[in-house]
Design a protein that fits this description.
Layout (H helix, E strand, L loop, with lengths): L5 E3 L18 E6 L1 H4 L4 E5 L7 E3 L20 E8 L5 E2 L13 E5 L15 E2 L2 H9 L3 E4 L13 H8 L3 E4 L9 E6 L10 E3 L3 E3 L1
Parallel strand pairs: 5-7, 6-8, 7-9, 9-10
Antiparallel strand pairs: 1-13, 2-3, 4-10, 4-12, 5-11, 11-13
């Protein structure tokens, strides 16, 4: 495989990465230095599993749902289409462009998260009908460039549950500011954390 272009669509993880309000902040530090060990530096990190660019497993919002180590990996190695939906407060099926042949993931470019060092006060509302639209077209993964497919204040999480009911999957917190609409290959594999409800990912688009 010859890769000509790679677009890193992941958020940086550091002490300036904003956590979901009330969640655990990200921390990384050297726990052992080369001077101390005589041979190597060793780091440790502490983080929420929903920090930065991450995927949700259904167990995140459904006690009977799939967990991270049970997720179908092919969903996160797919042909993805970036759709420009900037400037909208509500995003529904009427704003979705018909996918090109072979596309199995749709990434929505809202550009509404302006400063990635601050948790956004709001972001567009996504219609639950998008999950049905995806299922009808064989689209398995929805990626969004905001912290969640549901509003911060939602307790019912209608979009999460609609995605799960329709057998669709969720990628959140991607960075699409410098990515033009079009078709790419996507890699956004989760860590293999037994029993977990979410995982940070290193998400990249490439051609």
């Amino acid at each position: 495989m010859s890769v000509k272009e790679i677009f890193d669509i992941s958020m940086e993880l550091n002490d300036e990465t904003p956590e979901w309000p009330g969640d655990r902040p990200f921390e990384y530090a050297l726990s052992v230095t080369k001077e101390q060990s005589g041979s190597v530096n060793i780091g440790e990190l502490k983080s929420s599993t929903h920090m930065g660019t991450h995927i949700d497993a259904p167990f995140h919002y459904d006690d009977q749902g799939l967990r991270i180590d049970e997720m179908p990996l092919e969903v996160y190695l797919s042909t993805a289409q970036v759709l420009d939906v900037q400037g909208l407060d509500k995003i529904g099926v009427e704003n979705m462009q018909e996918p090109e042949d072979g596309v199995t993931a749709v990434l929505l470019k809202t550009c509404s998260w302006k400063n990635r060092r601050d948790f956004p006060k709001s972001w567009p509302v996504f219609s639950e009908a998008i999950a049905v639209w995806m299922k009808e077209r064989g689209i398995r993964l929805l990626g969004v460039d905001v912290p969640s497919v549901d509003p911060e204040t939602s307790k019912e999480l209608p979009m999460h549950h609609s995605m799960n009911t329709n057998g669709r999957f969720i990628l959140e917190g991607i960075v699409l500011d410098g990515v033009e609409p079009g078709v790419y290959q996507l890699s956004a594999l989760p860590l293999k954390i037994t029993g977990a409800e979410g995982s940070p990912v290193r998400a990249v688009l490439y051609r």
